[in-house]
Amino acid sequence: MKRILLLTSTAFFIFSSILFSQPKFQLVGPERFDIGDVPNFIPHNHALTIKNLGNDTLILKDLSASCGCTATLLSVDHIPPGDSGKLSFVFDAKRFDGKVEKKISVNTNDPIKKHVEIFFTANVIRVLDIQPEYFFIRTTNDSTVTQTLKVENLSQVPIEFTSIQPSGKDISITLNPKEIKPGEKGDLTATYIPKTIGSVSGNIEIKTNHPQAPLLTIRYFCWSKDKK
Hints:
single chain; mainly beta; Immunoglobulin-like
């Protein structure tokens, strides 16, 4: 009889442990927040902390955003009890103007919060417009090519471009004029001298004196083939 009672108690203890062993999702901060003013040509980086307040491992999966303008990343997808992880996102505001709202979703194994939706709002300020948005150059290995993008000042003050630096040595960049007045445009010109057959790509870092756009990045993609 005592053995039956002991086995029953042990089984009850194991069952209770399983039943009450649960993860608990907690976002540090509100699930709806404002990130403030965001210049249209500067990607905004933001990080959120997720805690596990339960006594079992918290599993995060199916992380997604409501718009392709928002890229998301989890530092970990399994968070032990009492530990935490980071949910990072980058909001690209190029195509927006004024107040916008975006959503990030994630599924969890928390029985109370199986699906979490996080909302953020931003006020997109139009500072610059660059058309096209990047350089795409195709040529042959014996031909130098130039291509020009139009840079428009959408702000209310003149913008001085203090530095323009491409990441590769096979492309050079100039801007004329170096200071663009409100409502006016300048020419951002790339000169590509192919040194190898195939493709090269990189970034062009541009520094300005505008407080909301001190540094912006433009991509370039170049492809050269053998002349036949």
